[in-house]
Amino acid sequence: MPSLDCDRGAIFRVVAYHCRDYDASVLSTLMDTNREPSTRLMDHGRSTLGDLEVLAVELLNEILKYAHLSSVLTFRLLSKRARAVVDASVPYKHILLNAPCIISALVRTGVSSHFTVDEIFRSFTTPNCQVCGMFGAFLWIPECIRCCIPCLRESPELLPMTECDAKAAFGLTKRTLADVPVMISLPGTYTLSKTPQKRARRLLSQKRARLAAVAAHGGEKSFMDWINSGISQSKAAHEQRLAARNRAHAGCDSQGNINCSIDDVKRFMATTHLPYFDITTRTTQNGLSCRGCQLALDAASSQTLSLIQSYVFLNRRDRTYTEDGLLEHVKECVEAQSIWASPSERIVELLALNFTLTLGAVSTKTYIALGSARNMYKRHIHPTFITLSYTFTIKGI
Predict the structure, then answer these.
(1) Among 290, 283, 288, 286, which residue's Cα sits nearest to residue 313?
(2) Looking at the predicted structure, is the pLDDT value of residue 278 above 90?
C-alpha cells in the first residue's frame, strides 16, 4: 500500500466520504453560515461600553468566556463597541466563525441561558464522544456534550425525556426544573429513516432531571422513598404510558440486549451536527466515513449472520473519524486498503458512487421477530434494527 504520509490528500479523496444523511437525521436550523446570529443593535447612537470601558480587554474576555451564551448575545447588542468586543473575544469568535449554526441551534431551542461560552467551546474542541470515547460529529443539546451516531442511536445516556414525563416520573414541578436545560424541539425530519415531526416537544436530560429530583426531595434516600411509595397517580400513569411505548417499540441493541429506545425520534430531535475544531491548526472537521466499511457491509449482507455479527458491520459503517483517525483506521481496514490498491478504473467507479444511507443502503420491508408471533412487525426500517434478513445494494448517481 502506498505511503499514508505522502498520499494523505489522495487517500481522503479515494477512501473517505462525508455521509450527509447523518447530518440530515438530526436538528437543523438551516442557518446561512454567512449571517451573524443577530445584527440588530439596541442603541445605534452609542459606540462605547460605558462603565465597562475601564476594564482591560483580557478581563472582559474572561467574563464573556464564563458567561451564559444568552447573556453574551444580549451584551453584544448593546452597542457597536460591545459587538466588536464580543466578536473578537476568545473563544466566542471561533464558534461564530466556524460553527454559527451551533449558536443558532442553542438559541432557537431555548437553552442558551443554561450553557456558558466556555462549555460550548470545550465541546466544540473535544473530538471524542462523551459516551464511548470515539470521534463524534454531533452535539447532544440537553447536556451540551459531543456524541457519535452509534451511541446516539442506542445509548441510554442519550435518550431524552419529555418535561411531562420528568414531572410524573420524578415528582418535579416547573419551579424545581428551573435550573435544568429544557429544550424545545423544532419541526423537521428526523432519524435515519426520515421521520417527519411537526409537533414541538420539551425535552431534557434524564440524568439532570434525576439530580434535580434528588435535590427537590431532600436527598437520595427521600427520593428513593418517594419512588418506591407508588402513591402518585401521575407517576402510575407515566409507568403505564412507558410500558405501552416499550411494547410498541421492542428491539435489541448491538449487544443483543432488549432496548426499546433504539432510534427513538426524540434522540435525534435533541441532537445537532457539531464539527470538530482543532485549536492547533485552526481548522474544522465534519467527520469522515470509510468507503471500505460500506463495501464490507454490502458484502456481508449476502451472508447469514447473527445479530451481534451484523451489528459489527453496521457499527463499522456508522463510525466516523477525524482525518488523522481515518488514516489510522485505513491501516487496519482491509477493504479500504483494497480500494486504495485498486486499478484507476475501479477507483473512478467508486468515486462516482453516492455513499449515503439513502442511495448507498436500501432499506427493505423486513419481518422482525422478537421471540414470539405477537412481537412480529412488518415495516420499512433502518437496517440497524434486529432483522432476520436484509438486503443492501450500492447504487450510482
Answers:
(1) 290
(2) yes
